[in-house]
Specification:
By secondary structure, the protein is mainly alpha-helical. It folds into 2 domains: 54 residues, no CATH class; 233 residues, MetI-like (MetI-like fold). It has 12 helices and 2 strands. It has a two-stranded antiparallel ribbon with strand order 1-2. It is flat and about 75 Å long.
Length: 311
């Protein structure tokens, strides 16, 4: 008999390197999708921030070819400037009063729209009316309120007609009233965002909690304090921190209504920094002021991120 010889197939080549390349490529695919956004963030945010920080430690930047290292001298000049102290105080009043008023108005209107005492048509009308201030741009809001608050404007005419005042008041030209008027306008334009967010939170509270509270004999105030507020606490904290960050960066409204005046009565950190850079051309000092504002904003952002993680 003739014996048959079976040839063994050649050993397969190791696939480990190929699999490693594929896994690496698969991991890099998401970064490829994100690369345009990452490039924009680096070019438009990271690089300018680094440049501003470097400018804050130097003198004679931008306007002169050769700048010199100044250390912390620019920060000392900013922190000891009376105008900066006034701007810091005005900013604190502006953001604190605005945030508290946004919260109270937003919660009040949200609870009204969430109540069962109003019909569907009435709620729809109120929703449109309450959201209107949020639909206008800052430029439109500033122009409208400047016309309304003019000494010969509508507000003074109504107050004179009612006998509350005798002569027209220059609301934006009086150092004693300008800051509070600008704060009022900011409150008017910003409360709808609180209202919408809190209304969504109210509609997400289970009705069984209120039924259980009623069974336990709780009155409306006890239901509000022991059921509504605890359920809305995460939303309230998040909105409050976000509002502090956004309001601290408010520039357009202040600049278009008062320009920081009169007599620095509405000067904010944003307008103070802008004037240093583009009115006085003190770019190094303006950079130091911008870094200080950045640090204050990062502190608020830190609390916001931590609160979000706790949720």
């Amino acid at each position: 008999m003739t014996s048959l010889t079976v040839e063994k197939p050649p050993p397969a080549e190791p696939e480990a390197p190929t699999r490693t390349k594929k896994s690496v490529a698969r991991r890099l695919i998401p970064f490829g999708y994100l690369s345009p956004t990452i490039v924009l963030i680096v070019v438009l945010m990271v690089v300018p921030i680094i440049m501003v920080i470097s400018y804050s430690f130097r003198d004679n930047v931008i306007v002169q070819e050769n700048s010199v290292f100044a250390g912390f001298a620019n920060y000392t000049d900013v922190l000891t400037d009376p105008d900066f102290v006034a701007a810091l105080k005005n900013t604190f009043i502006f953001i604190t009063v605005s945030m508290v008023a946004h919260l109270l108005l937003g919660l009040g209107f949200a609870m009204m729209l969430n109540s069962g005492m109003l019909s569907g048509v009435t709620k729809a009308i109120f929703r449109v009316v309450y959201v209107l201030p949020w639909l206008f741009t800052i430029a439109v809001i500033a122009v409208i309120w400047r016309l309304l608050l003019d000494p010969s404007g509508v507000i003074n005419y109504v107050l004179q007609t009612l006998g509350i005042i005798q002569d027209g008041v220059n609301w934006l030209g009086d150092p004693g009233s300008a800051l509070w008027v600008v704060t009022f306008v900011n409150i008017w334009s910003g409360y709808p965002f609180f209202m919408i967010s809190l209304l969504a939170g109210l509609q997400g509270i289970p009705g069984e909690l209120y039924e259980a509270a009623s069974v336990d004999g709780a009155n409306p105030w006890q239901k509000f304090w022991n059921v509504t507020i605890p359920q809305l606490r995460p939303v309230i904290i998040s909105m409050a921190v976000l509002d502090l960050i956004w309001t601290s960066q408010q520039f357009a409204l202040i600049w278009m209504m008062t320009g920081g005046g009169p007599l620095n009565s509405t000067e904010m950190l944003s307008t103070f920094t802008y004037k240093l850079a583009f009115s006085e051309y003190e770019f190094a000092t303006a950079s130091a002021s911008a870094v200080i504002v950045l640090l204050l904003t990062m502190i608020l952002a830190f609390f916001y991120v931590r609160q979000q993680r706790e949720r």
